[in-house]
Each structure stands twice: as structure tokens, then as C-alpha cells.
Amino acid sequence: MNRLLSFFPLLARRARKKHFELICILPLLIFLCVLTVVPIARTVLLSLEPVEGNGLTMSHYRELFAQEGFRLAMFHTVSIAFLSLSIEIGLGFLFALILSKSSRVIRFLRPVFILPLAIPTAVVGVMMSYLFSGQGWINRILMDLGVLNEPVYWMSGGWRSIVMVSLADSWKVTPIVMLILLSGLQSIDPVLYKAARIDGAGVFYTFRRITLPLLVPSITAAVIIRGVDAFRIFAVPLILMGQNLKVIGTFAYLEYQEYNNPYTSAASSVILLGMILCAVLIYLKTAGRKGIAGA
Amino acid sequence: MAEVKLEKVSKKFGELTALDQLDLFVPEGKFYVILGPSGCGKSTLLNCIAGLEEVSAGRVLLGCRDVTHRPPYRRNIAMVFQNYALYPHLSVYENIAFGLRVRKAAREEISSRVREVSRILDIEHKLNSYPRELSGGQQQRVATGRAIVRDPDLFLFDEPLSNLDAKLRIELRGEFIKLHQRLGKTIMYVTHDQVEAMSLGEAVVVLREGRVEQISPPRELYHDPGTLFVAGFIGTPPMNVLSMEVGFDGGPVLAEEGIRIELPERFGSGLEPYQDGRVYFGFRPAAARTIKEGGQMNGRVVYTESLGEETYARVDVGSEREVTVARRGDIPGDCAQVGVEIDEKRMFFFDENGNRIKI
Amino acid sequence: MNRPVKRTFFWMTVLILVCLLVFPMYIMLKISVSAPRDVFTQNPPYLVRHFTLSHFRDVLASGSVFFAPLSKSVVTALGTSVLSLLLTVPAAYAISRFRYRARYGLILVIFLTRMIPEISIALPVSITFIKGGLFDTVFGLMLAHLVRVLPISCFILVGVFSSFPKELEKQALIDGAGRLYAFFKIVLPLSLRGISVAGIFSFMFSWDEFIYASYLTLSKPTMPLKMYYYISRGNIFSSATYAVIITIPVLIFTFALQRYIRPGYLSGAMKG
Q1: Tell me: the pLDDT tens digits for C105-140?
Q2: Starting from the edge strand earliest in sequence, which strands make up the sheet with B347-350, in order?
Q3: Pairing between strand B57-62 and B4-13?
Q4: Are B317 and B257 in contact (CB under 8 A)?
Q5: What is the pLDDT of residues B156-165, one digit of tens each?
Q6: Are the CB atoms for C209 and C27 separated by under 8 Å?
Q7: Does residue A6 have a pLDDT over 50?
Q8: What are the beta bridge partners of residue B155?
Q9: Contact, B275 vs B247, CB < 8 A?
Q10: Which of B41, B59, B45 is nearest to B210 (CA)?
């Protein structure tokens, strides 16, 4: 190795200079390679493998797109991702603005705003099933308040269930969005607000011209981190809806666990990966030109 | 065995050149101050000598050893940083003892040396405190103590006083000089404060954009600057510099848009090569004074400022050129017409590239 | 709007949000301590009317049916956090010492692994583990959990080490320490708080995990899986009780450490 390197004096010197760092970082990279890159490659191969014989085939993908269930799962995934992301960013912003106020009561309440983060996702599924079932607490409260006359069957599938899953997911992960945005808010120099006030700017003007632009990197980071997870949503829809409302994650899972079909399962998870990459690229190209580099 | 020699040392950070083929020699036991504006490469220079940064090209020699590729722990150097870099989780005693422990010194030896050093620096009573409990001056002393306890060949100081207030700075400046006298070790001291540089250094190295501009004893730096940059950088208020055209009208004459300065005959030979060209003409505020009338220039007083002993007048000598001149006696105040008399022995001339024209 | 109205409006918003955040947890806890007749009724009461600990007693009395998943979850989560720290502490330290471009690139690569749906990793990994004898073992599950834990841990730690004052480390090198000595004597002791935050996050992410566990276990489920089993059988009390038990440790962690869960830890790695 050393002799090989000595042919490239510059490279060899670089490597010698950084060998401590390289040794430190290598185990992690090897691990990630073995347990993510290799499995991904195998999933892609599996999705292209014919059930019998050799060679590659697109038949599993064709089969998937022919199924109405899969097309629906794609639609569900995208709509849940959009809906939950909008709720999370909106609420997360509200949370962050509230928590950035310096008040003793707010400081005391801080743990409450972080708490849902600590609840295991599967538990969130259980809780939400108590809330959203036909005789659940959401219906109960809304009817007691006189908002509803008859119960809404959230778990009956269709758009009601999409809304339910999005709300359930948002409940758990809004604190993460809040933390990311709060860190952005806290890094804004308070002198800027003072300067704006001296310049005669009102609350909304200050928010629009100072807070929001300076928060763009944090918002981008939050959208990407959360957006990716929104596409990967799994445990909440599985527990709440199971077979009745599939997203691609649960579709792939049920395809393998219930119908013992690893090929279509692999193909659908490859499609999910593709969707995530597309979504991230589209977002970075359009809205987040500044990218997470600035965050 | 601790002279420092840099041979054609360069340091690049990507596109940026911090040090540019720099040559420097610091003889053993000398106190050298590295002076320059921020971003001139002073700290990079120290880091390269210490081994914290690897040089991109050139050689670093300590004593007679080539240490270019040696890690810091094989150079036997001590360094004090601007923010002292005291280990916050260790007591003062452990901070000072850290270097000795790394070298696996015996327990008794560590104890006796830490105590001796802390006595010299007058921090004995603070040995069990933690850095956050100390005042700025005490923290500075601990950092210095940590440097001297190891008996290194060379001391590097990276702006060690710039975080302290003015009074403490002057006090500790004196202690650095005493310390150097006592230890007799080579010291390289980086600062951007010219007063500090002038008062501490046996020699001052002026650095500019990664190159050595001039190395001289402090007095010489002030009275005999080698370049326009040094002349402008050293001294408060700064030297007056005017760009003038050289002519000969009987004797040598400098002229520029209404200003006309007749120079003594003996300057003629030195300025002859620049006839009909331009030179920079410089004189220090303290080398000139305002008089009622006459002198080499005249103009209108814009304002005066008092710096304690001295009072300086800002004089508009025409064409929007202003010079600062020492004001002597009770001469009319603002807006008065005055003459400016410059000491002929303390005039400086620089060519277009900023190099000194010796006359 | 004048000031008092504004303030009332603000605190009303806070109150509503707090209720929304707390209510689901309250319902879960309520069911786990309510007698069946409080639950299986047309209009269940808002408060606990017939308090009982019998559901907890039942679960605890079920012996290994309860304790086996619990111990598997605890061991897996602890092992995962230890392994993740062993891998990410040195790596994050190294990354934080690279120049901007290299650091940014490496973080991006590690972040990219977060974009991969776990479902597409779980399947081939489970096939490999069946062949390699790691299927249905604690160690195998730890390895799988590391896939989701490592990027988070690395992210947090790069933030921690990047904010570590470089002068201190330089000073240690000047004082004659080698890189390793400086790391263990100076960097590590002063970064313990950040490292423990990374460890806690690792624990929580493993504790909470569902997909890999369901792919990689057959006879020995973890706590979340066991709970899913009860949900799918419609056993409302067992699932509520399991849910409460799973939630308790992470709740304690979060409360004890919420002062240290600084927003900065999440974005620190991304700062130039």
C-alpha cells in the first residue's frame, strides 16, 4: 500500500497527514457501506430478478403498476407526506415562536412541547387509535362541544384516513421541526430586532423582512429532514389502518410478510426510494436553492 | 540550541496564500516580536513553527534540527494563545502540570516545578482553583506558567495580552521583559499592537501579506523605516505621506497642485533619478510644527486634537490634502492660516513601489 | 389589538396546544388504569372513575411473555447505543476536523443514508441474517438498529465536536501530547454532555424501532412488536399497558435531559 502510494507523492503526503482522521472514520464508513449500500443494491437486484430463471426483468414493476392497490398506495403516500409536512412546518413554527419567548411559564412548559418526541412511534399508533376510532375521543369531544352531530368514521379509508394518519404523525414529530426552527430563531442576532424597531418596523413587517428570510436555511433543513421521513412513514399507518389504507412502506411490508412476495416488495421499496430522491431534488431545485449548506 | 530559521516557507489554504516564501532568522535567546495588520499571516507563522500547521513548502529549523515534518510534541516548544486555552476541567495545578504529565515526569519533580513556577508568577494561592474562577490577568499568568514549566527551547506567544484591559496589559508587558531576562530563552511574540511591539521586542519583524517587510530594532523601525508600508504602519498619529512630482528649479523641488516644497541642495543627488517622476514624500507629525508664517507649506487649521503631552493640528494644505502636525505654543486655533515647518533631517522619500529612497 | 387582549390570545393558544399535546397521553394512561366498565361503554367518562391496577398486574404476572420482550428491548437499546458511540465518536471527531468541503461532503453522504426507506434495507438484511445465523438474535437486531441510529448520532456529535474550542486541543499538542492523548484527556472529558445526548438519542431510536424488529425477529419479539401483537388482536388493555410501560423509560430520559436537548445539537453539524 505504501509503495503504491509513493507513486503519487501528493496523495501519499495527504494520506500520511490525515491518517489519524482516516482511521477514525473508516469503521463508520465501512459499516454504513455494508449495511446500507449493499442491501440497497441487493434490493434493486431483487426487484429486477425473475421469479424463475436468470436475467433481469421489469415484470415486477409492471405488475405493481397494474395493481390498483399500489397506485392508491402511491397516492396515499404523497398526499400524507404533503399534508403532514404542511401541518408540521406550520405548527412547528408556532411552537418555536412560542418557545422563543423568555417567560418563566414557557420555560416550565418546555418539556411538554418536547415530550411527544419521546413517545415510541408504535405507541403513538395505539394512542391515536383511541382518539380516532368511531367511538373515539375526537368524535366524543367534538360532539360534546356541539361541533358534530354524528360521529366521523376516521378509519373508514379515503381522505378521512389520510387526514387522520397525517395528524397522528404530526403529533409525534412536530417537536423535531420545532427544535430545528427554534435553533434558527435563536441564532438570529437580537440586535437586528432592536434595529428594526428603531427603524420603525412593526411586528409583522419585522417578521416578514427579518425573521423569515434569516430562517430560510432552517426551514429548508426541517423540510428535507422531515419530508424524507414523511415519505418513509410506516408504523403509524400500519397500526392505525393496516390493510385498509396502505402507503408504500406498509404495502412493501405486507407484500412480503402477508403474501410472501419478496420481488414486488423489493420493487415497491425501490420506487419509494426513487420518489424520495425526486422529491428532495425537486425541493432543492425550486424552493431551497440555498440548500442545507447554509443551515 | 534554539535559534529559529525559516527557509522559503510557504503556506497555502486552498487559493489563499498565507505565507509566501518567507525567510526568517531568530538568533538564540532573542525576543522577537512579529507585527502586522490582521490577516498578514502572523498567527499562521507561529502555527507553522509550532507544528500545528504543516507548511506547504520550505523548511523550518529549530537549533540545527530540521523539524519541518515533525509533530508538535517533538519540537519542544511552548505556546501561549490569545484566549489562554486553559483546560476548563482541570485545576490550575493540573493545567500547569499537564505538559509534565504527558512526558511522564516523576510526581515529586512535577510538584516542585509547578510550585516554583507558580511562585515566580505569583499564583501560588490559586493552585487549587479552576480557570473560570480566575481573573483575566491570573488566567494569563497560568497560561504563561504552563509554558515555562516545561523548560522549552522556544516560546511562542500569540497575542497573549490582547484580551486584557489597558492597565493590566502594561503591567504584564513589564513582566514579560523580566521573564525573558530571567530565562534567557528565545521568544517569538505575535501582536498587532505597535506600542506593545516597540516596547517588548529586541527586534520587530513587520509582516505584510505573508512576507517579511522589515526586521529592525524598534527605534530603527520608527526612525529609519525601510518601506512606505512600515512608515505608515508604525507611529501614532501615522506619518504624513504626500504623492509629489520631482522637479529641479535651482535646487530640488516637490510640486503638486499648488503645493510647492523647496528642498535643500543636498537632496539633489538622491532625487535626481526621479526627475519629472513621482515620489512619496513622508514626514512624521512630530518632525514638523506649525508656525505663524513661512515654513515649507502653509494651510488652514481644520481641527486640533490633544493626546496628553502633545497637541496635533490637522492642517489643510490645499487640494483637499491634510497633514497632521505637532502644534507648539499658543498659536491661533481652528481655521487660522499657519505655516508648516518640517525638520529637514527627518524627511523620508519612497519610490512608486513604496521602497525607501536613501538620501 | 391592545396589550391585554394580545396576551390573553397568546396564552389561550399556548393552553390549547398544551392540551392537544398532553391529551393523547392522558387517554392512554387512563385506559391502562381503568376498569373495563369505564371503557366499554357508550359514553366513557373523561376522568378515571373506577381505578384499577389489574392490567399492570396481569401484564407483570404474565412472566416471560412480558419480561422476555422487555429484556430484549433493553439489551438491544443499550447495546445499540454503546456500539453507535464506539463507531460515531471517533468518526464525528474526525469529520469535525476536516476542512469545510470534506466535512460537508461526508455529512451529506451520511445524511443520504437517512433518505433510504428502512423497508428497502430490512428485506435483504433479513435474508442475509437468516443465512448468517443472525436472524432472531439480539446482536443481529443491534446491527440493524445501528443503520438508523448512526446518522443521528453522527450528526449530533459532529455538532458537539465542531463547537469544541480548537485552541484547547492545539494547546495540548503544544504541551507535548499526541493526537490520541489529547483526545482522551482533553476533548473527551469536555464533550461528555454532548456525547451522552447522542447516546440517549441512540437508545431512544433503538427502543422505538419497529420495522427491522418485525423483519428480523420471529420467536423473540421486542416490546413494540409485542404491543402490535396485542393491538392486532384487539386487546385494548394489554396494548395500553404495554404502551405505558414502553413510554416510561424514554419519558424519564426526556424529562431528565430536556435541558440538554439543545436545538443547536440538531443543526450544529451543518454549520460551516
Answers
A1: 888 888 788 888 888 888 888 888 888 888 888 999
A2: B259-262, B251-256, B240-249, B278-283, B347-350
A3: antiparallel
A4: no
A5: 999 999 888 9
A6: no
A7: no
A8: B78, B187
A9: yes
A10: B41
**What cell was used for B204?**
520587530
- Residues in chain B within 8 Å Cβ distance of C189: 89
All 3 cell numbers of residue B183?
530565562
- Under an 8 A CB cutoff, do A24 and C93 touch? yes
Interchain CB distance below 8 Å, C211 and A234: yes
CATH of domain C55-266: 1.10.3720.10
**C67 contacts: CB under 8 Å, gap ≥ 6:** none
The answer to whether residues A261 and A253 touch, using CB atoms and an 8 Å cutoff, is: no
Cα separation, C17 vs A95, in Å, equals 9
Taking a C-beta distance cutoff of 8 angstroms, is the pair B154, B77 a contact? Answer: yes
B204's enclosing H/E stretch is: strand B203-208
Question: Mutual orientation of helices A121-132 and C236-257 as an angle, nearest 10°?
Answer: 130
Q: What is the DSSP letter of A269?
A: H
C27/A127 CB distance under 8 A: yes
Q: Are B341 and B295 in contact (CB under 8 A)?
A: yes
H/E stretch holding A281 reads: helix A262-286
Amino acid at position B187, single letter: I
Mean pLDDT of B51-76: 89
Q: Which of B103-107, B252-256, C203-207, C249-253 has the lowest mean pLDDT?
A: C249-253
**DSSP symbols for A239-265:** HHTGGGS--HHHHHHHHHHTT--HHHH
In the chain, the amino acid numbered A200 is G
From the list C167, C181, C190, the residue facing B102 with the nearest CB is C181
3-state SS string over chain C? CCHHHHHHHHHHHHHHHHHHHHHHHHHHHHHHCECHHHHCCCCCCCCCCCECCHHHHHHHHCCHHHHHHHHHHHHHHHHHHHHHHHHHHHHHHHHHCCCHHHHHHHHHHHHHHHHCCHHHHHHHHHHHHHHHCCCCCHHHHHHHHHHHHHHHHHHHHHHHHHCCCHHHHHHHHHCCCCHHHHHHHHHHHHCHHHHHHHHHHHHHHHHCCCHHHHHHCCCCCCHHHHHHHHHHCCCHHHHHHHHHHHHHHHHHHHHHHCCCCCHHHHHHHHCC
pLDDT-based confidence at residue A292 (cuts at 50, 70, 90): very low
Q: Cell numbers of C179, please?
A: 493526537
Distance between CA atoms of A257 and A244, rounded to whole angstroms? 16
Average pLDDT over residues A258-274: 90
ipTM over 0.95: no
pLDDT at A291: 43
Are residues B87 and C168, on separate chains, in Cβ contact within 8 Å? yes
Where are the domain boundaries for CATH 1.10.3720.10 in chain C? 55-266
Q: Find the closest chain C residue to B53 by CA distance.
A: C170
* DSSP bridge partners of B57: B10
User: Which of B181-190, B233-242, B286-295 is predicted least confidently?
Assistant: B286-295
Torsion angle defined by CA atoms of residues A209, A210, A212 and A217, in that order, rounded to the nearest 10 degrees: 130
pLDDT digits (tens, 9 = 90+) for A270-286: 999 999 989 888 887 87
Q: How far apart are CA C94 and CA C97, in angstroms?
A: 5
Phi, psi of A191 (to 5 degrees): -60, -30
User: Which chains are within 8 Å of C by 3+ CB pairs?
Assistant: A, B
pLDDT at B329: 64
Name the residue in chain C with its Cα closest to that of B102.
Answer: C177
**DSSP reduced 3-state for B106:** coil
pTM of this structure: 0.81
Closest by Cα among B278, B280, B158, B284 to B233: B284
The C-alpha of A177 sits at a distance from chain C's nearest C-alpha, in angstroms, of: 10
CA distance A118 to A239: 18
Write out residues 40-79 of B within 8 Å (CB-CB) of C: 47, 50-52, 71-73, 76-79
Q: Which candidate from A40, A111, A231 shows the least CB-CB separation from C258?
A: A111
